[in-house]
Design a protein that fits this description.
Largest sheet: 6 strands, mixed
Radius of gyration: 16 Å
Oligomer: single chain
Strand content: 15-25%
Distance between the termini: 39 Å
CATH architecture: 3-Layer(aba) Sandwich
Shape: globular
Number of domains: 1
Number of helices: 10
Number of strands: 8
CATH class: Alpha Beta
Order of helices and strands: HEHHEHEEEHEHEHHEHH
CATH topology: Rossmann fold
């Protein structure tokens, strides 16, 4: 894939409540990390797996002490519009999620988690992470098959000198056609330019997309 920029191309994969995800055959972190490392062996790719808040906090602290910014963070876990089950013993709001990861100066966060791509979660993440430029997530219940869309998004971002909007849209469309899953991209520009009224419209649109996705997957 050519030379890579360690400072800008590091990836962090976080599995929230790994034991539960493993029981449900949803523990995708190791698979994602392995495939990304195979494609980009020079890029730093780290995986955090933990079942308790204390254990997760310790692992995140250790990574932070290394001083490495992660331009892309992938989060796998159970969530809803209000927040994320960060560990087996802790559910936190999306503002709290931003506090967990803002020290890594991420440019994007990619969420394999239910309803994480809706307007309210994205608003909290953009507000809490000043460096964040884009969010990929589903406005509907997420499922295991969406890991393939996430993988292709990450591989494109790492391989391209600049991410191409048309390529990203093609990946999103392919994901929808093959899995009936939704993986939307929200940008900071959209967030900053939208007012209260537009935010409410986006919220209503999220609900419609949620219902559509559920019907298509039946």
């Amino acid at each position: 894939m050519g030379k890579t920029d360690y400072r800008r191309k590091a990836v962090l994969v976080v599995e929230c409540d790994s034991a539960k995800l493993a029981q449900q055959n949803l523990a995708l972190g190791e698979q994602l990390c392995s495939l990304i490392k195979q494609a980009f062996p020079l890029n730093p790719v780290d995986l955090v797996q933990s079942d308790t808040e204390a254990g997760l906090l310790e692992k995140v602290r250790e990574l932070h002490e290394k001083g490495r910014p992660y331009r892309s963070i992938i989060v796998v876990g159970h969530s809803n519009q209000d927040g994320l089950m960060i560990s087996s013993d802790r559910f936190i709001g999306w503002g709290g999620v931003a506090n967990w990861f803002k020290s890594f100066d991420p440019h994007r966060i990619i969420l394999i988690a239910c309803n994480a791509g809706r307007w309210l979660p994205c608003t909290a993440l953009f507000s809490g992470m000043p460096t964040l430029k884009e969010i990929f997530g589903s406005p509907a219940p997420a499922h295991k098959d969406q890991a393939f869309a996430v993988l292709f998004i990450v591989l494109h971002i790492l391989g391209a000198q600049k991410a191409d909007a048309d390529t990203l849209r093609l990946i999103q469309a392919g994901n929808f056609l093959l899995t009936k899953g939704l993986m939307l991209r929200r940008s900071r520009r959209e967030y900053e330019e939208s007012g209260v009224v537009e935010g409410l419209v986006w919220g209503l649109t999220d609900s419609v997309l949620n219902q559509l996705a559920e019907r298509l997957r039946r």
